[in-house]
Amino acid sequence: MRITVLTRASRLAYALAAVTACAYIFIASAQSTQTGQWTITSKPGSENVHLMLSYQGRFGGNNNTSFSISPERLQGLTRSQMMASGQVVKFQLVRDAGTLSCEGWFNDGRGSGHFAYIANPRFAADLQRLGYGSPTVEQQFSMTLHDVGLALIEELRSQGYEQATIDQLVRMGTHGVRVEYVRELGAMGYNLKSVDKLVRMRDHGVSISFIKELGELGYNRLAAEELVRAKDHGVNPSFVREVVEAGYKDLSLEQLVRMRDHGVSTEFIKGMEEAGYSRLPVEQLVRMRDHGVSPAYVKEVRSLGYDNLTVEQLVRMRDHGVSPEFIRKMKERGFNNVSVEELIRLRDHGFDR
What we know:
Layout: H1 8-31, E1 32-42, E2 49-56, E3 62-69, E4 74-75, H2 79-83, E5 85-95, E6 98-107, E7 110-119, H3 121-129, H4 137-145, H5 150-158, H6 166-174, H7 179-187, H8 195-203, H9 208-216, H10 224-232, H11 237-245, H12 253-261, H13 266-274, H14 282-290, H15 295-303, H16 311-319, H17 324-332, H18 340-348
Antiparallel strand pairs: 1-2, 1-7, 2-3, 4-5, 5-6, 6-7
């Protein structure tokens, strides 16, 4: 049996190594300001994966943050590891504001495990140097999760945006304002100057493709608030295309919004055309829709001998309850060939009883 005898120098080297290891563990633990769980699932037909992070919030509640990400952004993780069966993995998500160090396992494209977050002190120093102040632990963690980095800050500064607060930077991240979004908006001539307007556009779903498609349909250079209004009221490119195909070109945004708000669909327009009312002005379409003058109502009234009525006559009949059933009942009682105004008076005086 061999016995290894440690010299005094060897014992000192081992002790030094042990102290160094303990110090490293202590520092890593001290730097880790947030821990939690991660899960990754592959997205069918997509190069990206879905990453979900679960962690405890500042006041003890459970929080979840999820986003789509390319596996190439996850340092130390390969696609073959992801698709393996029972594969133990270690990888990192490195961003300007900090790093998520993840450990866990994968099985056939699905993975889970734990993460530890380490803030990047240089990022906090850069924010301080640029005049933003120092972020709190929670703010820097949020900026890490939502990829709020120096590239976004530099893009805002280069486009002449107002100096944002750290809270505004955090809001930009949580509302999906990324550097690519700001850059593409700037290239299209949208230099909003206001960070809050930028967040509002993104928050209401005004995407770059939405702006481009409306532009291709003739709605160029809409103001930021007009884009938000269009999005909020459902005036999307597909609706505009349908309206144009129905023969309504060069409508103002306000006209499109009114049509959408009042339920004037292309089906309604086509139905009115089939009932003999083609190319009515937008305001008349809106008025008919508001007062319940449907294509079916117009067709029934026509079948009872009331054709070529004006929009105003149809609206008045509907408002006063002159239904096809009422007209039939009046005919049964001998009231034939009466005018619209006479029908209204009969209805108002309760002749249907």
